[in-house]
From TrEMBL:
Name of the protein this chain belongs to: ATP-dependent 6-phosphofructokinase
Cofactor(s) essential for the protein: Mg(2+)
Positions annotated to bind substrate: S173, I174, D175, R210, M217, G218, R219, E273, R301, H307, V308, Q309, R310
One of the protein's GO biological processes: canonical glycolysis
Listed SUPFAM superfamilies: Phosphofructokinase
Keyword Transmembrane helix: no
Sequence positions that bind beta-D-fructose 2,6-bisphosphate: 481, 538-542, 576, 583-585, 670, 696, 702-705, 775
InterPro entries named among the record's database cross-references: 6-Pfructokinase_euk (IPR009161), ATP_PFK (IPR022953), PFK_vert-type (IPR041914), Phosphofructokinase_CS (IPR015912), Phosphofructokinase_dom (IPR000023), PKF_sf (IPR035966)
Family recorded in the similarity comment: Belongs to the phosphofructokinase type A (PFKA) family. ATP-dependent PFK group I subfamily. Eukaryotic two domain clade 'E' sub-subfamily. Belongs to the phosphofructokinase type A (PFKA) family. ATP-dependent PFK group I subfamily. Eukaryotic two domain clade "E" sub-subfamily.
NCBIfam families, alphabetized: 6PF1K_euk
Length: 821
């Protein structure tokens, strides 16, 4: 595709969204199959986006059963009917398995009920069975209408008017068992429940030197078991897709006893409920317990988590994912034609994409077929890049080969934490240390950042030294914001003294600046001419070269949880607006995404300048004007954000207080404006809202940096750090001798996720993409989600947020290395 074609496609895409209208259309939304946290967020997004574009939206209660029964099971939704459901687990519109819908007679009744209300667009939230049923219904639609007309239940005019049915699916499943998406709605929340239990069990297990066997959900998919094993550093994991090899009983017992010999006081074994051996025979938790007790004599307990994993409040990740998918589903429905096949809205990297429903379902069923036929390698491959990556990483980190079987590289690799602490840093260090040792390197830990580096606070760190680090917050190595510039000579001397052949830096913007300083000093100090790579870790998520940073997800969950509690307190007092200040420096990621996850009415960020006219009420209201949310985006890029606000925030909240939703939530990034401080905004809202609502303020502060890392941050830190060490090992193998000098730009990089790809980008290139004054990248992907937050809060804004308006083939992959989050 040449530049002209790309330009034309951009123009046609923009025109399509500008003319997007749901006037005269009706959308039905239903949840089917097993419930999952985040389903309510998806329902809310579908309802509000549908109403926003002028369509009627109907709740279909109790899934397909409600569609078949009709009557009060199909009810028109209003804007307020989905208020206060964002933080609620399960599904408020109910879910049921329906035998009647599997018959043509049942589908005939369902079609009649939909036609009576003019519903020709269906948004189905469920698993592969639910989505398959929707596609069969779509294919039969015209035939069902003809039959209804012949029976005299509808007239020919209705047949013509409702001649085709559009179907868009969203996958709601805690098992993450659907092929075509990196994450399904509910999976991250289920992982939160599992990790909360694992962390709690670890303390009691350690006290009594016990072995715990934990059974998690996953009858046909081992994703929850695998990622929770990766996130807690479990000793052994049993999965349906990758059964243990023959003789696993002896191998597992040897592994457990070796870990105890390393002074580890507990063992954790995680079992998926559908775990099998190579002969497809079940492996149960009780079997494993009996084996450990009989062979090793360890005090062993079994904990079956069960439906706890489905319950509780959805995580920030699931709320944002579901909100994005819900909005994208409505856009897809309104863009659909009679020829458009049913599609699934999916997540690829950090991109929302549309995939053919039939192909996704077929591949999902192929996984089960491969397992039934004992083709387990095919099952893992079909499960997708995320699953395969997790499995390979777990195997490398869980099992240490005997020292005499590891080929020594005779290289010393140092690891350092720089900048403010971020939850997940310790998981990244553990991963790097173990992968480095497995690759034959001697691993050195540098304590207290560049300051400690210059003072020689460097020690060798072993495999067992990092045991149990994944679940610990902060930085065990110690971290400081000090840059290396004034200590370059001392740092070079320490690198020479300890014969350091490569350096891995885990940190935030200070780490990035430090890497630039080390790069610039290479001409002067040859000791710095070694491979260096940085893994981004900061709650601010402001490192150039990566869309995500370790620690940001944990901070986002802290913000979201706090906002939930604050909103709950407001529900009792009524007519109250809360102003919440978040961290992030000049980067508005936490405020914007926290606002989206918590259902905020507004989020003030540096990247979108605002003035007094945006704050004050209607009697001093300014005329409509564009807000420059795209100030830091390249002109003409695919996902350029365009925001046009037509009402001020106080006016918006004043109108809101007239409804049944008598509370407000406003987030403010700490450095969004030097004059419009949190105190100023609080005082302004208090004055302008006098007699209508009162105000409270809350500064979240350093609680956003603390706490145990979220499952996402543990998993992300573990995988990205392992990949960084693989890159270092590859670079060191390229060197013909120990004294090779690495001078090229591609030997000093930042490793990060960019859209759908995992990229090593030279710091020299990233310099051009950095706003050094404000310590943020010039282009930030999350700004395209800015209008989404405003639409869901009922602001009138122009909307351009879809990543792709076309169906993508299932096997499409770019040339770059795919990034599975």
């Amino acid at each position: 595709m040449d530049d002209e074609d790309v330009a034309n496609r951009k123009v046609s895409f923009r025109k399509c969204l500008e003319h997007l209208s749901g006037a005269g259309k009706a959308i039905g939304v239903l949840t089917s199959g097993g419930d999952a946290q985040g389903m309510n967020a998806a329902v809310r997004a579908v309802v509000r986006m549908g109403i926003y574009v002028g369509a009627k939206v109907y709740f279909i209660y109790e899934g397909y059963q409600g569609m078949v029964d009709g009557g009060r099971n199909i009810v028109e939704a209003s804007w307020e009917s989905v208020s206060s459901i964002l933080q609620v687990g399960g599904t408020i519109i109910g879910s049921a398995r329906c035998k009647a819908f599997r018959t043509r007679e049942g589908r005939l009744r369902a079609a009649h009920n939909l036609v009576q209300r003019g519903i020709t667009n269906l948004c189905v939230i469920g698993g592969d069975g639910s989505l398959t049923g929707a596609n069969i219904f779509r294919k039969e639609w015209s035939g069902l209408l003809e039959e209804l007309a012949q029976n005299g239940e509808i007239d020919k005019e209705q047949v013509q008017k409702h001649s085709y049915l559009n179907v868009v699916g969203m996958v709601g499943s805690i098992d993450n068992d659907f092929c075509g998406t990196d994450m399904t709605i509910g999976t991250d929340s289920a992982l939160h429940r599992i990790i909360e239990v694992v962390d709690a069990i670890m303390t009691t297990a350690q006290s009594h030197q016990r072995t715990f066997v934990l059974e998690v959900m996953g009858r046909h998919c081992g994703y929850l078991a695998l990622v929770s094993a990766l996130a807690c550093g479990a000793d052994w994991v049993f999965l349906p897709e990758s059964p243990p090899e023959e003789g696993w009983q002896e191998n597992m017992c040897i592994k457990l006893s070796e870990n105890r010999a390393r002074k580890k006081r507990l063992n954790i074994i995680i079992v998926a409920e559908g775990a099998i051996d190579t002969q497809n025979k079940p492996i149960t938790s009780e079997q494993i317990k009996e084996l450990v007790v009989k062979q090793l004599g360890y005090d062993t307990r079994v904990t079956i988590l069960g439906h706890v994993q489905r319950g509780g409040t959805p995580s920030a990740f699931d709320r944002i994912l579901a909100s994005r998918m819900g909005v994208e589903a409505v856009v897809a429905l309104l863009q659909a034609t009679p020829e458009t096949p049913a599609c699934v809205v999916s997540l690829s990297g950090n991109q929302a994409v549309r995939l053919p429903l039939v192909e996704c379902v077929q591949m999902t069923q192929d996984v089960q077929r491969a397992m039934d036929e004992r083709r387990f390698k095919d099952a893992v491959r079909l499960r997708g890049r995320s699953f395969e990556s997790n499995l390979n990483t777990y195997k490398r980190l869980a099992i240490k080969l005997p020292d005499d079987q590891i080929v020594k590289s005779n290289c010393n690799v140092a690891i350092i934490n720089v900048g403010a602490p971020a939850a997940g840093m310790n998981a990244a260090v553990r991963s790097a240390v173990r992968v480095g040792i497995a690759d034959g390197h001697k691993m050195l830990a540098i304590y207290d950042g560049f300051e400690g580096f210059a003072k020689g606070q460097i020690k060798e760190i072993g495999w067992g030294d990092v045991g149990g680090w994944t679940g610990q917050g902060g930085s065990i190595l110690g971290t400081k914001r000090t840059l290396p510039g004034k200590s370059l000579e001392d740092i070079a001397a320490q690198m020479r003294k300890h014969s350091i052949n490569a350096l891995l830096i885990v940190g935030g913007f200070e780490a990035y600046l430090g890497l630039l300083e080390l790069s610039a000093a290479r001409d002067k100090y040859e000791e710095l001419c070694v491979p260096m790579v940085m893994v981004p870790a900061t709650v601010s998520n402001n490192v150039p070269g990566s869309d995500f940073s370790i620690g940001a997800d944990t901070a986002l969950n802290t913000i979201t949880d706090t906002c939930d509690r604050i909103k709950q307190s407001a529900s009792g007092t009524k007519r109250r607006v809360f102003i919440i200040e978040t961290m992030g420096g000049y980067c508005g990621y936490l405020a914007n995404m926290g606002g989206l996850a918590a259902g905020a009415d507004a989020a003030y960020i540096f990247e979108e300048p605002f003035d007094i006219r945006d704050l004050q009420s209607s009697f001093r209201k300014a005329p409509s004007r564009p807000c420059s949310a795209s100030a830091y985006l390249r002109s003409g890029t695919w996902t350029r954000t365009t925001v046009r606000t037509t009402e001020s925030n106080v006016e918006h909240l004043t109108e809101k207080m007239k409804t049944t939703i008598q509370r407000g939530l406003v987030l403010r990034n700490e450095s969004c404006n030097e004059n419009y401080t949190t105190d100023f905004i609080y005082q302004l809202y208090s004055e302008e809202g006098k007699g209508v609502f009162d105000c409270r303020k809350n500064v979240l502060g350093h609680m956003q940096q603390g706490g145990a890392p979220s499952p996402f941050d543990r998993n992300f830190g573990t995988k990205i750090s392992a990949r960084a060490m693989q890159w270092i090992s590859t670079k060191l193998k390229e060197a013909p001798g120990k004294g090779k000098r690495f001078m090229s730009d591609d030997s000093i990089c930042v490793l990060g996720i960019s859209k759908r790809n995992l990229l090593f980008q030279p710091v020299a290139q990233l310099r051009q993409e950095t706003d050094f004054e404000h310590r943020i990248p010039k282009e930030q992907w999350w700004l395209k989600l800015r209008p989404l937050m405003k639409i869901l809060a009922k602001y009138k804004v122009s909307y351009e947020v879809s990543d792709s308006d076309q169906l993508e083939p299932m096997h499409h992959r770019g040339h770059e290395e795919p990034a599975a989050i």
